[in-house]
Amino acid sequence: MITRRDLLKGMSALGAMGTVGLPSLLLPREVFAAVTPFSLPLKIPSVLAPSSTDATTDYYNLNIGETYAEIIPGLQTKVISINGAVPGPTIRARAGRKVAMTHYNGLPATTLGGAPGRVSIHLHGAHCPPSEDGYPTSYIQPGNTRTYTYPHNQLPAPLWYHDHAMDYSGSHVWYGMAGLYLMSDT
Asked: Which of 82, 66, 69 is closest to 177 using CA atoms?
C-alpha cells in the first residue's frame, strides 16, 4: 500500500525531473527491458492510385476509422487510420493538375482518448481557396463525407495531409491520422 508520505515523495521527484521519467515511476523496469527499440521494420506508406481521373482532375477516396497496428513488438495498439493504414497512404499529385480528395469519416462519435470523432482535413503547405483549407471548425461529422478540391497552382513541394479539428488535431495526428502528399512537376 502506498502511504501519503510515499505519494508526496513520488510527486516531488516527478516535479523535479519532469514527465520524462514518468513511465519508469509507474511501471516495473522489466516492462521496458522486454521491448527492443526499433525492432519492427520501418513502415513505408503505400502510394494510393486515383479512384478515377478526367482531363483536369485526379480523384481519391480516403476512409478514416479506428483499427489496430503493431507499434510495440507483439502488442496491438488502437489507432486512427486512413484506408486502414498508419500513416495513411501517400498521394502523388502534379503541380497544375487538380486533385479531389473525398474523405469518409468512419470514426465513432467519441474516439481515442475521449476525443470527439469529428475531423477536418488540412493539406499542410498547399495554396488553396479558404473553402478547401480544412479550417479547425470545418468538420466532417462521423458517418459523413467531404470532398476537398485542390487546384495546385503552386510550385512542386513535399506536403502532408492531417486532421485539423479544433482542440483535437494533435491527438488525432498522434493516433495516426496523417499522410504524405508529394506534389511534383511530372
From this structure: 82
pLDDT digits (tens, 9 = 90+) for 65-122: 999 999 888 889 999 999 999 999 999 999 999 999 999 999 999 999 999 999 999 9
152, with CB counted inside 10 A (0-12, 13-18, 19+), is: buried
Q: What CATH topology corresponds to 52-184?
A: Immunoglobulin-like (2.60.40)
C-alpha cell at 123: 493539406
Rg (CA), the chain: 20
CATH 2.60.40.420 in the chain is located at 52-184
What DSSP line would sit under 88-129, residue for residue?
EEEEEEETTSEEEEEEEE---SB-GGG-BS-B-EEEET----
Could you tell me which residues are beta bridge partners of residue 63? 104
Q: Which parts of the chain are beta strand (E)?
A: 52-53, 57-70, 76-82, 88-94, 98-105, 121-124, 145-150, 157-163, 178-184
Closest C-alpha among 184, 172, 29, 153 to residue 88: 172
